Amino acid sequence: MRIRATVAAVSGALALSALALPSAAQADGAHGSTGSTAELARAAQSAAAPSAAKAGARSAAPAAEPGPLDLTFSKFTINGGKPLVVGTTYTKRVPTTFTVTHAANVDIFAEDFMLEVGLYRGSFDNPANEFYGDDTPVCKKVSATVATCKGNIAVYPEFDLFGNADATKWKAVGYAVALNGQDPEDVDPGDIGFVVQDNLGTTLVQRASKQTVNASPEPVKKGKTITVTGWLSRANWDDFKYHGYTSQSVKLQFRKKGSSTYTTVKTVKTNNKGDAKTTVKATVDGYWRYSFAGTSTTPAATATGDYVDVK
Q: What is the pTM assigned to this prediction?
């Protein structure tokens, strides 16, 4: 079962009966990396001395001792550098990669060692929302102190999205926890090793968009006027439906039959329902489409060309 991570500082023992604890290197296909690592790391940070810094705290203490671990995250990437685009129904899952550098006495492949990289928006101490993966990251040993890891970020729209305000820039944060032999169902945060490292990177989370087109009449006599209509819409995370994207510029483009290149004929603005409409003269067979360039909250969208036969 996928569990939403709580972001408040936790005190006392955490029940982890729903959490499987495979090692990072053996986690292929395993479920359970759902923010519980973050909960534990936050709880341990709260229980630790105030000197435990949130941004990659390092310590010379052996891994078997509680407190900040000598471990850092670096080279974080998400979705190949592209924004995370989410619709209204289907789970969006994108890959992450990162490197872990650690002291030789920190065994990230131990059965009771947990790694997690997540996204959050808002402040670090009081996030407005958080995303995590639904699989434990899989790590590969590069040397005695370096490993490269692959994971994912998964967004279940109706469970993870808190409204359209989630369409903004998010920050990445890394967590690591060494349970130090504790029973995973009865963990004392004050007795675990931990790392909480902020500012690994950023990504945009965007509302998925759609663009349609219809050119008519078809066929049409040469030199006669055709009307090209279309609808630009985007995901609304308040009611999980698609609504028209209003007052946006969309380009009417044409591709002549036999050509592979579209050229822009004119630019049209969508109305208060997201509709675009204009007229042009038909002179030659070809395809008509609308193309939307995108905004910071909404990705680009281009309709599939509608063919018009000119007689």
A: 0.84
